[in-house]
Amino acid sequence: MAGIFLGAVFLWAAWKKIAPLGSPNPPQVFASSITAYKLGLPDWLVTFSTFAVPWTELLAGVALILGLWTRAAAGIIVAMLLLFIGLGISALVRGLEIKCGCFGDGTLFCTGGLGWCHIRENLFLTSLGVLCVLARPRGTLDELLGRKTF
Amino acid sequence: MTVKPPTNIWKLVAIQALVLASVGSAIGVIDAFRRPINLSRTTVDVNDLLKPTTPPAAVAPTPTPPTPTPAPPMAKAEPAPTAASPPTTATGTATGTVNPGDAGWKPTPEAALPKGQITIEQAKRLFDAGAQFIDTRKKDEYEAGHVQNAFRIGLSNFQAGDPALLAMIPRDSVVVAYCSGGQCDESEAVARMFSGSGYAKVFVLHDGFPGWKVMGHPVQTGAGMQAE
């Protein structure tokens, strides 16, 4: 269940970043979110992150929902969440008044600008991800196909 | 024939994770070519816009540090420079450690500015010509004082698409973004967002609001017009 929930959250997060949001070019909006963190990234890396992050989120989310390569998908999501937590804390410490941008223009549990609520939210999701990595998945495609990774 | 199960499942998990991340990145790269985004700041040369009213070049102007005179709220706009009263040509070197208002501060000269950034004098002439100024600082700073008629639009306002205030700024407008001068980079980032939203005449006031205010140019206080 944790895997399906986490997968659905990431599928939704990815969709909000790459599918139409009422803006003619949703990736441009997500790129502005990355830029808002003021990380000093070169343009090519901002562009790469703008597209690679949501597509990887989407693949990992689908894999988690299907129960295929569960541990690998959960591992990727945990790694991304840890990165997001680090970036969020960095922005908060620097006093940036920005939006999280985690779900495009949407929200999960936290509303308003980036705050410690978003850090807690990501920590909660990270704990679910760690659970998916460590626990033996039941009733998943991995199990049905007799994968050796659990 | 039996297949020996892997002794270390984590190695297989790592390979699977690498495959997932690689495929996601590859699709992302393909998507990046399909739907290009604009991160560069496109702008015309400010001198091309100012040409019709550009007076003859001043000859060896004497560096004259401005007298720090706080402008009153809602100060009247100064008349546009004319040939009879050429604008002060900023001279001297860029001062990274001397703030506007401090002794020895001088407006940063045009020669010291990167492309797309303008001097206070150029900004004033664009102001007189009706350019839209964009304050990119925080709400409390904006409300304490901003360039007259400036809108406050920060970088975060672009995180959910174009802010609604952009509907009030025609795409062919001249836009001047500013923040606090010095080391602040919010205005450059916002200027990029304006370029990405289809504005071609976007400039950044290098010396920011402090420089503008010290030069005695029109400022006002209050809520003004701010993006949500």
Account of the 3D structure:
The complex is a heterodimer of chains A (150) and B (228). Chain A is an all-alpha fold and 150 residues long. Chain A has one domain (2-144). Helix content of chain A is 66%, strand content 0%. Chain A contains 6 helices and no strands. Chain A has helices at 2-18, 26-36, 43-66, 70-93, 116-134, 141-144. In chain A, helix 2 crosses helix 3 (43-66). The longest helix of chain A is centred in the middle third of the chain and has 24 residues, at 43-66. The model of chain A has no long low-confidence stretch (mean pLDDT 86). With 228 residues, chain B is an alpha/beta fold. Chain B folds into 2 domains: 1-36; 46-81 and 88-226, Rhodanese-like domain (Oxidized Rhodanese, domain 1, 3-Layer(aba) Sandwich). Chain B is 28% helix and 11% strand. In chain B, the strands form 2 sheets. A 6-stranded parallel β-sheet of chain B has the order 1-6-5-2-4-8. The radius of gyration of chain B is 24 Å and the shape is elongated. Chain B starts with 8 loop residues before the first helix and ends with a strand. The relative contact order of chain B is 0.18. Classes of the chains: A mainly alpha (150), B alpha/beta (228). The interface between A and B is large, with 46 and 39 residues.
How would you describe this structure in keywords?
heterodimer; A: 150 residues; mainly alpha; globular; B: 228 residues; alpha/beta; Oxidized Rhodanese, domain 1; 2 domains; 6-stranded parallel sheet; two-stranded antiparallel ribbon
Largest interface: A-B, 46 and 39 residues
Q: Report the major sheet of chain B.
A: 6 strands, parallel
Shape of chain A: globular
Shape of chain B: elongated
Question: Could you report the average pLDDT of chain A, rounded to the nearest whole number?
Answer: 86
- Radius of gyration of chain B, in Å, reads 24 Å
Count of the domains of chain A: 1
The helix/strand class of chain B is: alpha/beta
Order of helices and strands of chain A: HHHHHH
